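Customer escalation, tier 2.

The customer says the design service returned an amino acid string that "doesn't look like it belongs to this structure." They asked us to rerun it and document both sides in this ticket. The original structure tokens are below, unchanged.
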């Protein structure tokens, strides 16, 4: 039996309705970290679809994003806006303007954006009660800024063997940390069949020295 990876939580500090899911709270920053090709965009779009906002925005810094990927995870095309911005100087201003009126944003972060600017944007997201999912193209979200941090570990493809066959799905292994992971490091396996939002299929608390602070 699988559980939805994402549960849109109501305003306030309540726990997510599904304890097996990842919390998507208003006023929180979520960080997605790892190399390209490990499924982080799918996870980010699935998280965006789980928010209760009437309008959702994707900021595409690479120019690769196809709106179909967002539609596949359940985002209504009539309530989705894709903004393209690859410039590290302009990107903070673009995100600041979006935060003035948008409650749910998934954004790639171009290389070269200063940490101080990221922290200011995180503070604005909290003040505006907006959910902001950040996907740095290099490096990571500054320490302590993300309520929940997801780090891609590896991906396994299912369906094609010995050079032939049809790809059925992929399993992503992701490490969770931060307050959204109860202050502990957790490792989860996430199933992605390419047609629906991604789903957690197993969860394990991993031994680490100290506690996770995001």
């Amino acid at each position: 039996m699988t559980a939805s990876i994402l549960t849109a939580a109501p305003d306030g500090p309540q726990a997510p309705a599904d304890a097996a899911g990842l919390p998507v709270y208003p006023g929180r920053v979520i960080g997605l970290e790892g190399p390209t090709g490990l499924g982080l965009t799918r996870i980010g779009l699935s998280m965006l679809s789980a928010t209760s906002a009437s309008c959702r925005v994707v900021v595409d810094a690479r120019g690769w994003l196809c709106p179909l990927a967002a539609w596949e995870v359940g985002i209504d095309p009539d309530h989705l806006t894709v903004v393209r911005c690859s410039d590290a100087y302009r990107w903070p201003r673009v995100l600041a303007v979006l935060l003035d009126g948008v409650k749910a944003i998934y954004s790639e972060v171009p290389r070269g954006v200063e940490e101080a600017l990221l922290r200011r944007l995180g503070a604005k997201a909290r003040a505006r009660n907006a959910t902001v999912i950040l996907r740095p193209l290099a490096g990571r979200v500054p320490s302590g800024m993300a309520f929940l941090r997801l780090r891609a570990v590896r991906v396994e493809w299912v369906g094609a063997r010995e050079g032939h066959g049809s790809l059925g799905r992929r399993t992503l292994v992701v490490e969770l940390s931060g307050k959204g992971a109860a202050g502990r490091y957790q490792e989860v396996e996430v199933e992605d069949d390419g047609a629906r939002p991604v789903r957690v299929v197993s969860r394990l608390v991993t031994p680490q020295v100290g506690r996770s602070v995001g």
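Tier 2 assessment: The sequence is consistent with the input. The mean pLDDT is 80. The helical segments are 40-50, 67-72, 91-99, 115-127. Sent an explanation to the customer and offered a walkthrough call.
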